[in-house]
C-alpha cells in the first residue's frame, strides 16, 4: 500500500455508547459514596503526588466512572495512600478506598 | 383582642407583626438582642440592587412604629413555648392565641475549618466581617495597607460533611459575587478571584449581576475549592486549589481571603424538637408541615414559622413568609 503520510487520530471523544460501563457500575456499586463527588478538586489540590506529577485523582476516578479505564491502574499506582485528600473531601469520600478499589477492579487495564 | 407572639425580631418577624396589626390582631415581638432587625443590621448593601441594608431596615422600622397594638420586648429570649404560652429567659410567662417562630439562622463559625486559618492568620476574614468593614467604609489589611489581591472562597461551612453541614446556604454565592464587585469598586486595580464549586444564582437579577462581575469588573472565577491556606515569609497568604476546568493544581499568593460563611440552624431548634413537639429537618432547620402547601405551618397546630428558621432564604423570601405566617395565624385564630 502507498504510504500517503496521513494517519487517523484516535477520537478523543468519551463515547459512552461504546464504553463498557460494567466495571464502572461494579465500582460504584461497591462504593456508592464515589457517586457523590462534586468535582471540587480539593483532593487534587492537596495531593503531593498530583503536585509533582501529572497524577490527578479527581480526573482519574471521573474517567473511570465514564468507562475510560485505560491507564487508570497505572495512574492510581502513583498514589502514596497518604490520606490527605480524605481529610479534606467535603463529601467525606473514603478516597484511599477508591484508589484501592479501582486498582483491584482495573488491574488488567 | 386576639394576641399572637412572634419569637425573633428579624426582618421576617417585623413583617409578621405589621401584617397582624393590619388585621386587627395584637402582636408581641420577643427579641433577644437589644435591637430589632436581625442579621440585616450588620449588612452593608444588598444584592442584587446594591440598595443599602439600612434603607430596607429603616422602612420596616417605620412601618412597625406606625402599627397599632404591637408590643416589642427586646433583650429577652424565649426559652419554651406552647401554642398558648411562651416562657421567657426572665422566667415570665406570656399568654397568647398563636405563636410564630421567626428566630432565623446562625452564622457558621469559620474557625471550625482550621485549614483556612480563620482566627489564626491575619487577613483571613468572613463575609460577615467584610460587611462590617464596608459599613465602616474601610477595608484594610492588618498592616494598614490596601489589598492588591483578594480571594473569596464559596461554600465555607456549607455542603461539607466534615462540619456536618450538608445543605447549601443559598445566599452565599450571591453574596460572594456582590462582595467581589464592591471590592473591585473600592480597589479598581486589585485582582479579585472567586473560588467556587457551583455558582448558584437563583433569583431575579442575580445571574445578571454575575455577568456584570465578569464583564464590567473583571472578577476572575476559578472552579475549584481551596484546600489549604498558609502564611508566606512576606506576610501574605498562599492558597492551593485545583483549577478543575484545566485539571491542574493551582497556587497563588494573596493579601486577603474572604470566607463566604454559610447559614446554619440555631442550636435552640433541637430543644424546640425535644421540648415543644416540633420537628427538625436533618439539616437542623425546622421542618414545615408541608413543602408545598404548608410552608409557614408547623406540625403543631397554632405554631407557625416565618423566614430562615426553616431554611436559608433571601430577604424578600423571608419578608414574604412573615406575611404568609401572619395570615395563616390569623386564619387559625378565627376558627
Ligand atoms: C453574609 C450574608 C449576607 C447576606 N446578604 C443578603 C443580601 O444582600 N440580600 C438578601 O436578600 N439576603 C441577604 N442575606 C440573607 C439575609 O440575611 C436573611 O434572609 C435574613 O437575615 C433572614 O431574616 P430572618 O428574620 O429570617 O432571620 P434573622 O435575621 O436571623 O433574625 C432572627 C432574629 O431572631 C432573634 N432570635 C433568635 N432566637 C431567639 C430567641 N430564642 N428568643 C428571642 N429572639 C431570638 C435573633 O436575635 C434575630 O434578631 C445575607 C446573608 C448572609 C449570611
Ligand atoms: S492519598 Fe493518594 S490521592 Fe490522596 S492525597 Fe495522598 S497521594 Fe494524593
Ligand atoms: S475532594 Fe471529594 S468531592 Fe472533591 S473532587 Fe475530590 S473526591 Fe470529589
Ligand atoms: S449558595 Fe453557593 S457558596 Fe453558598 S453553599 Fe450554596 S453553592 Fe456554596
**How far apart, in Å, are the first and last alpha carbons of chain A?**
33 Å
Low-confidence stretches of chain B: none
**Biggest β-sheet strands, sense, barrel of chain B:** 5 strands, parallel
Which secondary-structure class do the elements of chain B indicate? alpha/beta
Order of helices and strands of chain B: EHEEEHEEEEEEEHEHEHEEEEEEHEH
Largest interface: A-B, 20 and 23 residues
Subunit organisation of the chains:
heterodimer
Could you tell me the radius of gyration of chain B in angstroms? 21 Å
The portion of residues forming beta strands of chain B comes to: 25-35%
Strand content of chain A: under 5%
Question: Considering the protein shown, what is the CATH homologous superfamily of the largest domain in chain B?
Answer: FAD/NAD(P)-binding domain
Q: Tell me the radius of gyration of chain A.
A: 16 Å
According to CATH, the fold-level topology of the largest domain in chain B is FAD/NAD(P)-binding domain
Helix content of chain B: 25-40%
Q: What distinguishing features does this structure have?
A:
heterodimer, A: 109 residues, mainly alpha, 0% strand, globular, B: 335 residues, alpha/beta, FAD/NAD(P)-binding domain, 2 domains, five-stranded parallel β-sheet, 7 helices, 20 strands, 27% helix, elongated, binds flavin-adenine dinucleotide, binds iron/sulfur cluster
What does the model show?
The complex is a heterodimer of chains A (109) and B (335). Chain A has 7 helices and no strands. Chain A has 109 residues and is mainly alpha-helical. Chain A has a domain at 22-33 and 42-105. In chain A, 45% of the residues lie in helices and 0% in strands. Chain B has 335 residues and is of the alpha/beta class. Chain B folds into 2 domains: 3-105 and 265-334, FAD/NAD(P)-binding domain (3-Layer(bba) Sandwich), CATH 3.50.50.60; 110-262, FAD/NAD(P)-binding domain (3-Layer(bba) Sandwich). Chain B has helices at residues 11-22, 53-66, 127-136, 172-186, 206-215, 268-276, 315-334; strands spanning 3-7, 26-31, 45-46, 51-52, 70-74, 78-82, 85-88, 93-95, 98-101, 106-107, 124-126, 149-156, 191-196, 220-223, 228-231, 237-243, 248-254, 256-261, 263-264, 303-305. In chain B, the strands form 6 sheets. In chain B, strands 5-2-1-9-20 form a 5-stranded parallel beta sheet, covered by helices on one side. In chain B, strands 11-18-12-13-14 form a 5-stranded parallel beta sheet. Chain B has a 3-stranded antiparallel beta sheet with strand order 6-7-8. The longest helix of chain B is centred in the last third of the chain and has 20 residues, at 315-334. The radius of gyration of chain B is 21 Å and the shape is elongated. The two termini of chain B are 15 Å apart. The mean pLDDT of chain B is 97. Chain A binds chain B through residues 38-47, 50-51, 56, 58-59, 88-92, and chain B through 115, 155, 159-162, 197-198, 223-228, 240-244, 247-250. The complex binds flavin-adenine dinucleotide and iron/sulfur cluster (3 copies). One iron/sulfur cluster binds at residues 37-43, 58, 89-91, 93, 95 of chain A.
Amino acid at each position: 500500500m502507498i504510504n500517503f503520510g496521513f494517519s487517523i487520530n484516535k477520537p478523543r471523544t468519551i463515547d459512552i455508547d461504546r464504553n463498557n460501563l460494567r466495571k464502572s457500575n461494579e465500582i460504584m456499586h461497591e462504593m456508592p459514596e464515589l457517586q457523590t463527588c462534586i468535582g471540587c478538586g480539593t483532593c487534587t489540590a492537596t495531593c503531593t503526588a498530583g503536585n509533582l506529577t501529572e497524577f490527578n485523582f479527581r480526573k482519574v476516578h471521573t474517567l473511570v466512572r465514564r468507562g475510560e479505564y485505560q491507564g487508570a491502574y497505572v495512574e492510581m499506582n502513583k498514589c502514596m495512600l497518604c490520606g490527605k485528600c480524605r481529610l479534606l473531601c467535603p463529601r467525606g469520600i473514603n478516597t484511599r478506598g477508591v484508589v484501592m478499589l479501582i486498582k483491584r477492579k482495573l488491574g488488567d487495564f | 383582642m386576639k394576641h399572637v407572639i412572634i419569637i425573633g425580631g428579624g426582618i421576617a418577624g417585623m413583617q409578621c407583626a405589621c401584617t397582624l396589626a393590619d388585621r386587627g390582631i395584637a402582636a408581641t415581638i420577643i427579641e433577644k438582642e437589644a435591637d430589632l432587625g436581625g442579621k440585616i443590621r450588620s449588612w452593608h448593601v444588598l444584592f442584587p440592587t446594591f440598595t443599602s441594608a439600612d434603607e430596607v431596615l429603616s422602612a420596616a422600622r417605620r412601618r412597625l412604629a406606625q402599627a397599632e397594638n404591637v408590643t416589642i420586648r427586646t433583650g429577652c429570649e424565649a426559652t419554651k413555648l406552647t401554642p398558648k404560652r411562651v416562657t421567657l429567659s426572665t422566667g415570665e410567662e406570656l399568654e397568647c392565641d398563636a405563636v410564630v417562630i421567626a428566630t432565623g439562622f446562625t452564622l457558621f463559625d469559620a474557625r471550625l475549618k482550621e485549614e483556612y486559618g480563620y482566627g489564626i492568620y491575619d487577613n483571613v476574614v468572613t463575609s460577615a466581617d467584610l460587611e462590617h468593614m464596608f459599613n465602616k467604609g474601610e477595608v484594610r489589611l492588618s498592616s494598614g495597607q490596601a489589598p492588591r489581591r483578594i480571594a473569596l472562597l464559596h461554600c465555607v461551612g456549607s455542603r461539607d460533611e466534615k462540619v456536618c453541614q450538608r445543605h447549601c446556604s443559598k445566599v452565599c454565592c450571591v453574596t460572594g459575587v456582590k462582595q467581589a464587585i464592591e471590592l473591585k469598586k473600592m480597589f479598581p486595580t486589585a485582582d479579585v478571584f472567586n473560588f467556587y464549586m457551583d455558582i448558584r444564582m437563583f433569583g431575579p437579577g442575580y445571574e445578571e449581576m454575575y455577568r456584570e462581575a465578569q464583564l464590567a469588573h473583571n472578577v476572575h472565577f476559578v472552579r475549584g475549592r481551596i484546600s489549604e491556606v498558609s502564611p508566606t515569609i512576606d506576610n501574605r497568604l498562599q492558597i492551593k486549589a485545583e483549577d478543575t476546568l484545566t485539571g491542574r493544581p493551582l497556587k497563588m499568593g494573596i493579601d486577603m481571603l474572604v470566607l463566604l460563611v454559610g447559614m446554619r440552624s440555631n442550636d435552640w431548634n433541637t430543644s424546640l424538637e425535644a421540648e415543644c413537639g416540633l420537628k427538625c429537618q436533618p439539616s437542623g432547620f425546622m421542618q414545615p408541615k408541608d413543602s408545598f402547601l404548608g410552608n409557614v405551618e408547623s406540625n403543631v397546630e397554632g405554631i407557625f414559622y416565618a423566614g430562615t428558621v426553616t431554611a436559608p432564604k433571601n430577604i424578600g423570601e423571608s419578608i414574604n413568609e412573615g406575611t404568609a405566617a401572619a395570615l395563616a395565624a390569623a386564619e387559625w385564630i378565627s376558627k
